[in-house]
Specification:
The chain is mainly alpha-helical. The chain has six helices and two strands. A hairpin with a 3-residue loop joins strand 1 (43-45) and strand 2. It is elongated, with a radius of gyration of 28 Å. The relative contact order is 0.07.
Length: 172
Amino acid sequence: MMAVQRVLEGERPSVVIASYGFASSCDLSVVARCRGVKGAACVRCGHGRVRAPRRLAPKQEQQLFRWINGKDPRQHGFDFGLWTRLVVHKLIADKFGANLGVTAVGKLLAKLGLTPQKPLKRAYERDPAAIEAWKRDTYPSIAGRAKRRGAEIYFWDESGFRADVVQGTTWG
């Protein structure tokens, strides 16, 4: 605690580490995160390392998990329908008043077992009965009409069309 206090008073962490004979793996530079917090609030962990206190209590972490798991960000007033670290950062700030960095949010999400996922290949709103009716009734009707008129039928997925085709490679 005395080492923490010295760093909070402005002494360089490397000087404090050397004066106390701490191991070279000791990292007092994290004390910068404890500024404004009394030295005793910084927690000593493991082999002489000092770390900032937790930003969210375990109950808050569990509540955050419940808010995110299986839910849509729009249910919490966000405009975007996918969970991103930035959206979770804003949710934490709004609900708990804690200001975690985006990287810390990513680590917290991983700790909670929430990792980035690829979207499903098919829509979850899929209606098998409607698909079967389209195959059985609608499409044969369209195909027959096209054949009578000598027309061809093309299918185009809107995700495959761009009006501003990128001709080169980008870092985007």
